[in-house]
Specification:
Chain lengths: ~200, ~675
Amino acid sequence: MSQVITTGKAFEFTPENKEKAAVFIAKYPEGRQQSAVMPLLDLAQRQNENWLSKECIEYVGQYLGVPYMRVLEVASFYTMYNLKPVGKYFLQLCRTTPCWLRGCDDLVKVCEDKLGIHNGETSEDGKFTLLEVECLGACVNAPVVQVNDDFYEDLNAENFSALLDKLAKDEVPPHGPQVDRINSAPVGGPTTLLEKTGDA
Amino acid sequence: MPTLNVDGVEVTVENGATVLQACEEAGAEIPRFCYHERLSIAGNCRMCLVEMEKAPKLVASCAMPAADGMVIHTNTEKVKNGREGAMEFLLINHPLDCPICDQGGECDLQDQSMYYGSGNSRYDETKRAVKEKNMGPLIKTTMTRCIHCTRCVRFATEVAGVDELGALNRGENTEIVTYLEEALNSELSGNIIDLCPVGALTSKPYAFTARPWELRKTESVDALDAVGANIRIDSKGQEVMRILPRLNEEINEEWLSDRSRFSYDGLKRQRLDSPYVRKDGKLQAASWSEALQVVADKLNATEAGKIGAITGDIVDAESMKALKDLMDAFEVTSVDCRQDGAKLDASVRSSYLFNSTIAGIEDADALLIVGSNPRYEASLINARIRKRWKKGPFPIGLIGEDVDLTYAREYIGAGAKSLEDVANGKHSFAEVLKKAERPMIIIGQGALTREDGAAILALAKKIADDTGMIGADWNGFNVLHTAASRVAGLDLGLVPGEGGKDVAGMLAAAEAGEMEVVYLLGADEIDTSKLEKAFVIYQGSHGDAGAHVADVILPGVAYTEKDGLWVNTEGRPQLSTRAVFGPGEAREDWTIIRALSEVAGKTLPYNTMEELRAKMVEVAPHFADVDMVTAAAWGDFGAAGNVSDVPFTNPISDNYLTNAISRASGIMAECSQAFAADSEEGTGTHG
């Protein structure tokens, strides 16, 4: 398995990203600019269709004066950097205990049946990539799937299937709970603190 | 200076020392894998656990700073359990394939699991396997055995200065690889083999050839560059199996350059194993008596002015002294040990030494490098410069080829004009040198082997004088040699005498037919095509350029096959020890010259090595102080003159093919090919 994928296409930050990079670098003292490697890798990943090619790694290395190997070590250590191309909608499906108890296995099955992809695979049309991840920290709304940057919560086979249908048509529904619920409040509306207490 | 109690023993250690160092001071042995005193602290193997009173858990002693009043226990039940636990974890993914592992018998993991392990495993699951990685022609990898101590990564980054090695991924999936799995391109890469505490990184050329307990270990001195690194030659029967570094804080610490470590297979190839005499236009094997007779007759029949002698790069001091005495007996004055044509002055010893000493680099506070790439000419000196540079402000200026030296430096210019600017104070770096308390200059052979070499030497001397490099307890004037035999040759006066010709003069005269006999003592790095008309006597170990033009070949032995004195670039005489015998009829070089003198009727006045060394001490007293550097008095040298604007060319164009031994080595040829992109095509040293 190769460490990184070479695309042969040169990579360079857009002017907006260069401005952002300057802000990140300015957060660190003079001569310590290599500390900005993580936010810069994130910027590069966002600009490069959500993954880091060899060109991105080397660009960030040059940008900060950090040896390429050191950049690659960081990029390979953290799971949130993708070193392989991913689909337009990157599904990170939580499979830690609460989500698992609340039926995340059903969601995996939906992906397998509907998209034909297993953990780590990308659908043929290049739209979806499935990655099973550990706790996303939204246990109260389990099970949860992160689509790119957003959490879709309280999923089950039906509403997850519907979500995938919409995404396939490039319609992005509002994120958050996919059932009748406000954030982490009880399903169907609040059950306590119902009385107004005046202007306390 | 904290004082600690370790197992009931009170010890006081330096500020900043670790608990592990304190334990060692107190005589307690602490097992470790990741900790190495010359590398930064990683603290990831957990083998060095000790019990510290008032600490809730065992602490990793390598990463715990020693503090006043600490009470440490290293031999309690808790510590024993901790070590067993750490060892069990380390062995979870270790294949335990010791019977087929080259590290077997000298493996830290093997030894320490015997001493500190529990002796059994509770692990029933499958072990992880990792593919072998490519690290080039020198390093064989079996990464399944890796325990992720990261010593190799830290060495490459910190000491060698190449950020190519790293640990990718995390946790159980961690793998040590080079960037894009390219060959590890460092002139010090072989040291990671020694550093690896397990069998993950082993020597590729040595693979499966011997077990450590079968090897005879001979402590000797390296002769493939002028550093004089201390080595251990491991041999089996009459074959050198490998060469390892030996600790010497003054010179190589515990490192060795790849050229010195891996050229040993060249000792088995292209060897001259019998005397040869050219008969009917062809070199034919002859007996010693016949060959010596031919040489003696020729020397006796030729007038002294038409005889010349040149000594090469890998010649021990005794042989050079014997040759010098023989040539004196024949009243020959055309003798030269500077086969590269360096304009060095043999009359002032400090003018051709690395006066500050290698360890002294660490005391310097500014450095000017002229016409040299120490990375290839003396890799270990370069490592020392890098070590000093890492410690803090150390401005370095470079005049010559713009090469990567693994540390930051200010590039001043390409040639002698830039040196003139610094000498005249026109360049700002002159100010840097002046401000420094212990400035130093390193002049490489690239600056001295030119026509204007003497003028450049004078400029360097001017810089040394003007910027305060010469003081009562500091001499920052350094000449960096590339040849192990050069300093000894100059010490013994192997330079042209009255009316004598230097190397260039001899070659020109030989080409013109005026020089009839040329005696080459291991001299291969000269333009031998000019010697076709002359009667050439070649004495040496390898059938290289010199032997090809020879009319008589006298087979000598290589540096691993003789006892001899070598003087490194600092002027430090060191003794090499014979590890194996030379092949066939080859004899120790000084005995050949001694035998020749007898046949020629001019018997040299010594019969034993001791008598010969006594004669050497008469000429150069410092030969008596083996392993010591005798400070040389400052004097007047160099010749003021105009310098040309031609850029300096470094003497080494291909790091792996600098001498007859490495040119005969298959391993070096492979390296040369693998790293060809970096070193432009080269066929050896210039000159």
